[in-house]
């Protein structure tokens, strides 16, 4: 299957969606050859995933779901999730990452929406997790989006915006056709570049990032940064970093043959003793016990 890649780069795309505005932070395409370790998104952040080919497993909210061609799923605020590919048939994925902004961010002409449109947007923000099989021909939309972004013909920004609106709309329409987890989620906002910086630091630099370093990158004081992390995740910087470290440790224990000492060093602990104490305190068992039970 020859799948077209998508990357919006630095293009600013905001979608009027019922009573909200969706700030599209990135659209990406790629293949999973290794697992994406367990992580979660901040308040107001949603990630749409579409699997056009390949096989794998999604672990979300403590449950395992098979990923097959045509699978769609949305992961919203504080939904811990992990993607595990089938190495004999690695899955491809289109991913749309967006931030929900309040409706007063819309231009005046865009603020008029029907009750059905408002229901659609409320269904999106009140559903932190949903998974099902596509029955709205989403692949055709991703192909159209890829064509517009690669060719960059006159009006491509307008076209890309319209196609992304259709992608989100067709996604949320399908919530009502399958069972879904409907929970109220607070919708908060943060400057998009700062939000991505925070997300990426906890996902990729959990082993070494400090509060001071993150504050410097955000252009904020350490106190402001601490408040920002608390606002976005509901926990302190220290607790969020520990959560990321322990998630990475759990993945390494179950997917590699690395020694426990090597894992401790890999995720940023100075000594094995410090790691062992933290791991047992967090997971309720030793690293050795965790590895033997999960493998």
TrEMBL record:
Transmembrane residue ranges: none
SUPFAM superfamilies: Homeodomain-like, Regulatory protein AraC
Domain HTH araC/xylS-type: 192-293
Entry-linked Pfam families: AraC_binding (PF02311), HTH_18 (PF12833)
Keyword entries, A-Z: DNA-binding, Transcription, Transcription regulation
Name of the protein described by the UniProt record: AraC-like DNA-binding protein/quercetin dioxygenase-like cupin family protein
Organism: Paenibacillus harenae
